[in-house]
Amino acid sequence: MLPMLIDMTSCKVVVFGGGVVGLRKAAYFAKEAEVVAVSREFVDGFTERGIRTERAEIVEAAERWIAWADLVVVATDDAPLNSWLEERARGRGRPCNSADGVSSFLIPSVIERRNFIVAVSTLGRSPGMARYLRTYLDGLLGERHSRMIDLQEELRAEAKAALPDQRARERFLGEVLADEAIWTALGIDYGEAKGMAIKRMEGLGAGHN
Hints:
Low-confidence stretches: none
Number of helices: 8
Radius of gyration: 23 Å
Shape: elongated
Strand order of the largest sheet: 3-2-1-4-5
């Protein structure tokens, strides 16, 4: 499997299952996609997250909702029913994620910050380890990493004028990323960190004159 980030704003997702697992997976997609959850019963939390619910017998409603959806998520507590839904999804050519069966796509553990997203997956082999890695990385990644992205974005624009050679610009931006003093300043004063980076860029620019 290959990781990728996809814009889901125009996509439709059906989630079969109204339990805690179904809610978690439906909420993940509901951040962007149109999501409908199908089940006879639902735990609290679906409507609060903007998830449309359809109270129905899953076997009776499956074909209609699989035909409607771009992605299918199977999350019932009935293993034979999950397998049956997977087969129906594959038969329709729909990518399918299953809570306890064969999946054509996986839902990663995600860390979200202001300027970046990190997704972690063990390819379905150890959900517990995926959660552990997410927690571990969550403790390491903070606001200064988002500030570095802000800084790199600004420096890229300014370096085009100061450093006409592309390789020189790439080298400069890499040096900023490797500069522990700039990283330390980012946690205290963004302006100071940028000033340090600009001085480094000016020094490189003078070397090219």
